[in-house]
Here is the input.
Amino acid sequence: MTAVSPVVKPVSLMRLAPGSVVTIQDVSWEEFESILQELGEKRSLRVVYSNSTLEITVPLLEHEKSKDLISDIVKILLKKIKKRYEPFGSTTFKRENSAGVEPDACFYIENYQRMIGKLRLEPDDPPPDLAIETDLTSKTTLDAYEAIAVPELWIYNSKKLSIYLLKNGHYIQSENSPTFPNLPLTQMIPATVERAWLVGIVQALEEVEGEIN
Here is the structure.
């Protein structure tokens, strides 16, 4: 369910059902920053901002379980290829006066050392190397990721994983991940998510570890 409306009251007072998406147009950067402050850091709502458009989403339970599972798969795969990382969860990433986005999960891999011990992002911090979205993703979301310049974006939706790579400031879809070039992720991850609904997350993850060892 999507609604388009002006900002007529504090966003924190909105009562939205799980799965709802509210789109608010003509939102200035200052209003966006004010809304983030109003909502606070501990909240169930997720926001994305680009081109003066703000989207507010209330995730479904299915969304939450899928994002946790895919994040755990990434950690297993990074351990397998002996790459260190720093996970930054659903941190709000911003490009001032332009865009803001909160991934379902994200990882610093090439830049992990720079991010060790960070409690808050600084303006000169790099974007995460990999971001993950596990829901229907709008053009506003893709525009925001492009503005923030996240090199690799995964979108899991409708039992399908799509991999997007940033080239010359825009995303192109790819069958392969440069982070895990030898793994058939577009088959492995959807199959594992579906498997987890049948046997549970722990067993599904154990099976992934068994397959790659």
